[in-house]
Amino acid sequence: MAAAESDRDPPSALCSExxxxxxxxxxxxxxxAADLKHEVYRxxxxxxxxxxxxxxxxxxxxxxxxxEEQREELACQLLLLxxxxxxxxxxxxxxxxxxxxxxxxxxxxxxxxxxxxxxxxSCRECAADPTCVLCxxxxxxxxxxxxxxxxxxxxxxxxxxxxxxxxxxKGPYCHNHTPTANTRDSEADPTALLPADxxxxxxxxxxxxxxxxxxxxxxxxxxxxxxxxxxxxxxxxYYCMLFNxxxxxxxxxxxxLQKAVSCSQKEAVSFATTVDRDGRKSVxxxxxxxxxxxxxxxxxxxxxxxxxxxxxVMHSSxxxxxxxxxxxxxxxxxxxxxxxxxxxxxxxxGLQTGPEGENSSLVDQLMLNDSKMWKGARNIxxxxxMNSLLMDLKYKKIFAIQFAKNYRRLQxxxxxxxxxxxxxxxxxxxxxxxxxxxxxxxxxxxxxxxxIIRTFVDHLRHRDLHGRFQFDRYTAQQAFKFxxxxxxxxxxxxxxxxxxxxxxxxxxxxFLEGLDAFLELLKCMQGMDPVVRQVGQHxxxxxxxxxxxxxxxxxxxxxxxxxxxxxxxxxxxxxxYRKCLSVLSSCHLPEGEQPISLSVAGHTVETFRYQxxxxxxxxxxxxxxxLAGLHVLLSRxxxxxxFPEQLPLGELSPPxxxxxxxxCLVLCAQVHAGMWRRNGFSLIxxxxxxxxxxxxxxxxxxxxxxxxxxxxxxxxxxxxxxxLSRFELVHIFSSDCRKxxxxxNKDVVQQNNTLIEEMLHLIIMVVGxxxxxxxxxxxxxxxxxxxxxxxxxxxxxxxxxxxKALPENGNxxxxxxxxxxxxxxxxxPGVTGRGLYELRPEWTKHFNLYFHHYSRADQSKAEEAQxxxxxxxxxxxxxxxxxxxxxxxLFASLVNLLQCDVLLAVEGAVLHWAVEPSGGxxxxxxxxxxxxxxxxxxxxxxxxxxxxxxxxxVTFNYTSKITRPGEAPSTSGSVLALLxxxxxxxxLEVHKDMISWILKMVSNIKTMRERSCSTSTVAVSQGxxxxxxxxxxxxxxxxxxxxxxxxxxxxxxxxxxxxxKHFINENKELFQQSLEELEASTSAPPERSxxxxxxxxxxxxxxxxxRVGGAEPRQLVTCIxxxxxxxxxxxxxxMVLAAFVQRSTVLxxxxxxxLPDPERHDPVFMHPDLSMGVHxxxxxxxxxxxxxxxxxxxxxxxxxxxxxxxxxxxxxxxxNGEFLCPLCECLSNTVIPLLPQTRPPDPSVSHPSLEAxxxxxxxxxxVLRYTHRSQSGGVAEEAEPVVPEGFRVDFAPQNPxxxxxxxxVTAFSVSAYKVGLKVNPNEQDPRVPVVVWSTCAYTIQSIxxxxxxxxxxxxxxxxxxxxxxxxxxxxxxxxxWTSAPVTTTHTHFVRLFxxxxxxxxxxxxxxxxxxxxxxxxxxxxLSYSSVHTLDQSRWSSVDSAHLHLLxxxxxxxxxxxxxxxxxxxxxxDQDGAGSQEEELTCQLYDRLRKHLSSVLxxxxxxxxxxxxxxxxxxxxxxxxxxxxxxxxxxAPPADLLVAGPGQWEALCSYLSLPSNxxxxxxxxxxxxxxxxxxxxCHPGVRRSLQGGGAVVQFPRESNRLIxxxxxxxxxxxxxxxxxxxxxxxxxxRAPTLCLVCGSxxxxxxxxxxxxxxxxxxxxxxxxxxxxxxxxxxxxxxRESQVLFVAGKTKGCFYPPPYLDDxxxxxxxxxxxxxxxxxxxxxxxxxxxxxxxxxxEVIGHAQEANQTLVAxxxxxx
Length: 1756
Ligand SMILES: [Zn+2]
Ligand SMILES: [Zn+2]
Ligand SMILES: [Zn+2]
Ligand SMILES: [Zn+2]
Ligand SMILES: [Zn+2]
Ligand SMILES: [Zn+2]
Ligand SMILES: [Zn+2]
Prior knowledge:
Elements lengths: L1 H5 L7 H7 L2 H10 L3 H17 L9 H28 L3 H11 L12 E8 L12 H5 L8 E7 L40 H22 L20 E6 L6 H11 L4 H14 L1 E7 L1 H15 L8 E5 H20 L4 H12 L10 H7 L6 H13 L5 H13 L1 H10 L12 H5 L2 H11 L1 H11 L17 H10 L1 H10 L8 H21 L20 H22 L2 H17 L8 E6 L2 E6 L13 H15 L2 H4 L11 H19 L7 H12 L8 H14 L2 H11 L3 H5 L3 H5 L3 H23 L11 H15 L4 H7 L10 H8 E4 L8 E4 L16 H17 L28 H15 L8 H24 L10 H6 L11 H8 L9 H27 L7 H58 L32 E3 L6 E3 L7 E10 L28 E12 H21 L13 E2 L6 E2 L1 E4 L16 H22 L27 H19 L9 H23 L10 H16 L6 H15 L16 H16 L9 H23 L15 H17 L9 H27 L14 H8 L7 H6 L1 H13 L1 H7 L22 H9 L13 E5 L5 E4 L6 E3 L2 E3 L1 H9 ...
Antiparallel strand pairs: 1-2, 3-4, 3-5, 6-7, 8-9, 10-11, 12-13, 12-16, 14-15, 17-18, 17-21, 19-20, 21-22, 22-23, 24-25
Helix pairs in contact: 3-5, 4-5, 4-12, 5-8, 8-12, 8-13, 8-14, 9-10, 9-11, 12-15, 16-19, 19-20, 20-22, 20-23, 22-24, 23-25, 24-25, 24-26, 25-26, 26-30, 28-30, 28-31, 28-34, 30-34, 34-40, 35-37, 35-38, 39-40, 39-42, 40-43, 46-50, 47-48, 48-49, 48-51, 48-54, 49-54, 50-51, 51-52, 51-54, 52-54, ...
The structure holds zinc ion (ZN) (7 copies).
């Protein structure tokens, strides 16, 4: 161990200190000291620099630095912290602390502080707001587990709210934190439980240490330490300290460091990582000069574009004390965990006002210096604040007040700083403000609401002339600040999130003060970003719009919350309404220039000239919208009717109120009409967001409400005339200019048509939108329900889609869950897709085509869908308006719009145009809208009639108005008359049903009126009389009959149309069928089953001289590229099959085995652990070799050209020979040539016995071995072996193939070799044929396994493509030796044969336990052919050799299985008389025991052994059957075409084996016995069995993907405690789970990059190289995403097997619904893996989505 000795550190000077130091004595000395602070400081002054000032810690991590850290840690504990503990406790610290904890009476708060990525749970039913969360432990022990909960991952910081009664409406305590007798009353003083002297000692020592720490963390002198801490000896030792900022990138810092301190890239990365994590890091240690030099280089290098990186040269003693200050703070945090009393003491110390008066407590000092500290320091003291002040309810309040007092200053500091908010003390606001009582207290005592808003407004200083925000002139700096200042809105949200249940005068005053400030803020937004229509030129620069909308979006919830607050107190509401109105009137009012007077339909109104299309208009009108909201509240709370005298309703000028919102809506209409095209995307985006679900509640919706407010207070005719005027449409409806106008410019006509449509739609919304509680008489629930109904009327939707379509409230709730089940039914997802909600049919009658939140596209989709369902149900296709809910009294007069003269005139005009649709000035949409309006009016009248007792109080009389003849311009007749004449107009077929519906309504209403006239005289107050009931019954009966008749009619119609459809469908199928046939014929040989899958005679044999098959005369195939037919012949043009070769570890039983060294790997023997194999797959598409070559060249050329144009990868790697199959686009990287079938066996040849054959083959191999050795000149003294008769070593067989075929044979061999061994192509390498045999064997094995796992029959169940692939692969493998040098194949055969038939010369052969027998069988069979050609005597056939080889290998496998099936279980055996099989098994086993004596355990149960043998050998037999089936084209026996009994016998007979396999051994006893002995005597056998390595047992079990937990949060929790294995204890940011082996990796991070093949790759890619031979399946835990990676450049994401209750995945974990494992989906992924289909999935994904190609997969 000399080497280790030498690099051990020199003995430290500290060692002697340890020995001589006594913490107890020091503490005693301190106790006696007069000036404790002086003593403690003196101690620190001496020891701190000695312990923590030992120069540089090596950058790259490693053992040296961690040992250094450990020693430092130990010294700190023993020399510095232990005396403090002794002093505090007065006894041995570990005992003292234990005692403290025992006596402690903890508060019920959990307070667990979250780590990054840890799961947090919030209850959507019980949490006071979404920031209230539980840790996993508490959650699992709480009642919320059974509720609707949300799961997220923590961003770090924040703590568990378990035990905080204010955070939860229900179930505040989990199982563990339920208050018990031992729990302290939260009001009691916890220090009372401690001895008084300890409290006193605690107070004094905490004061000193906390003061020390605060002084040092806020210390800003680089060369001096605070007074009293001067080191005894001061050396010239400095640190060059680098600080982080958010301006410079990682790469910049790394680059600069390499230059400045000349370190390696690795060290630089490590420095940069630490700086990023801790906020600072010393990058150089030495004398002042030395450090100063590095500093100047860094500053110089980083100051070019921005302000330079911050670097300071600090004296080592300063750094040392700062380090200890952090340790001291952590120590404080730990000590107080033991005792609530000590915690209270520390809180007192921290918040004690200092000598400087206000804001001078130690905590104040920390807070106020927050932005000056580095990240690491901040994190540690924030953590301490959470452990102390926030856990003590009394001091939490005091701290909150202090925090609120300093709020403005803290925020200003934060805004000037550039660190993220999570490391700022301001982020503590979430802990303080979200407690409702606290928020209320701060609002009352510290005027918090006003403070926050004022601070916010003051930081947005840029204003225009009118005092409005102006964002378009923002510099980058200001924009950055704007981004940061938004966090204040978050604070405001916390303060307002829970509404007060009780008000007092103080709260009212402060809230209204806050509201004043808020109204000022809104005033600055009112009229922001005005736009003017661009005519002529397109705008040159898109104006800035995002900032204003960001602000609006952020404020949306605040505005809503303020309304919610107002709603809970009448006095506040009234006052707020007044204030809002007065601020509004102080704004500059709408500019009205020229007064004008308009008249339409005999009415006149005074207004002024204003045109949206020419003057300024702004989308931002928050004051109007807030007023609209408050107005609705006046109605909802009935304040308006109860205290009318207190409201300034008289001051309202309705035309002024509607003016600006109306302009905004007209702007939208004009944009739709294409009038603002030249204003660019900026405007389009604004309009989009105006209607978007994120903004509309406080934008579009409120504008509609404002129009409703105005219209309800105005003469409806006047209202409509103003609307017409703003739409610039008055001239069209006021005079006869329509005619003139028809001749006008076509664009103008179209514009006007759209405008008329939009205006009609607006009127529909103004009278019809009544689902806001306060406008209409509805419950809030009905509003959500209506939204959902309308979404689902478009189509069935997934839960997430619905959530996205609904507005969220401040609690991120949409209310969806409360109503969804009543209106929709849920359809579960299958293995793909997601769960969907479908509208229940009974709700379709609520469908409103002009639902105000539909976009035009939504509207037409919904219309189509609704008409379709109606048609399917055999109903008419009219989509009449649904019955609207009644209006609230304040809005009641809105209905008069429907029957006012102006609207009737408009309706009349449109109908009139529709009757004579000659010109272009009319559209069907217009008519449809008019019909809808008529429908709404009729419904209104009907409803009023129904609800009234008599005719008198029904003032609404639309039917009578539409029967009146129309006035100008439609002098032709009444609206009703027009409708009647339209009813049968041929060009209005679509609207026919709707018109009929209207006419029916009119007649219904008429009868109702007549009836009520008569009844009102008869039974005025009796309501429904018996007479009426009879009449109703009659009517109902009539209706029923009519309905029946209609239904019958419709049914017949439906049947007819169904028949028609059926016919088409049938033809479609026919059509499709023919297409498929066409495809099949091109993809496969025309005779689909040449090897005859039809079973023939039962005694079908596939191997040996009795084999059948291969009689197929000709095999014709078609080239997919040129469509020519071609016969498969050895001498013809080569035909090839597109194929994909890949390395595979799917069958691996040993993932720890490292990948073979490509150059030295010897593939001749496959180990039974199958740790890596080569798999070949094909899509089954056949081409001429020449056609394929031409195609591939074209692909290459295209790729070259593409690379010149744009850099980057394609989904396939052309340089590595990859291409996509020209027909099916399946990823391929080579082609397999098609070869003809083997000829049937020659019956004339004799079949030698095993003995004879063994003897001959032995002779032959001896000759070959001798010849090869003599050729290499190494047989000096060996005797020449006997050459068997007719065996000619020098015989050169003729290549049986044409050059075209040979070329392809070489091509495939080489690509299999290249991929399989990961080497450069080399035709001459003797390993080439071996790799080909190996891919044949491995592919067969993996398919056998797949069939077994899926319980499919061995034959007949494979898809064509696999069948084709296996048959061509096997035939090819048997011929591939022809392209290799003959001697290499001979050498291989000699080696293989010797392993089976060991002799003295075969010392290097592996033992029988180290060979996979199926591979051995395939290799020997395939290599034998080349040896056989040398035998010119022809007295034995290849077939008999195959059979002997099969028998030999089978026996070897039997031995292998017996050796490895150590039966440890107790043999509960039956009586001794077993079957013959069992006896023979026992005999063989006994023989083996004899050879190996003690190594094998004794076995008494032959039954059990035999069972194991039978099960163990089955996969081998099945694989062998597949192999010989494809090799010899023998039809399989019928029993193997189905799964079921009789498999074993059929299999054995097909393979020409006795069904009692042991007979093989028995019958050839004399031949085999010596072999068995030699196998057993191989030293490797004994070694393996005695535990020298893992022994593979048979049957090898299929590999499964790892088991995943049912509940996803278990995974998240696991991942959150996973730390990066490289950077000591850091949390991994992207923990990623390997689904194959279960390793957790630290992905996508610099720290875990590894060099693989000369390139730095991320942890996942690196892992794939060891675990999956380049292919990997992962689960990215924090993203809930499956990741597939192949090689370094390819990858894709795949939906995870976790679903929420709505049948949806949550990729990115954004939704937070609980996720559960879907076993079916997981099996699907597993099957994909088993099938070797991952690479293909990646290929398809990348083809479909080009952005995937650009991802740097190797960095994951
Ligand atoms: Zn907890
Ligand atoms: Zn708890
Ligand atoms: Zn709950
Ligand atoms: Zn061709
Ligand atoms: Zn294909
Ligand atoms: Zn793995
Ligand atoms: Zn890492």
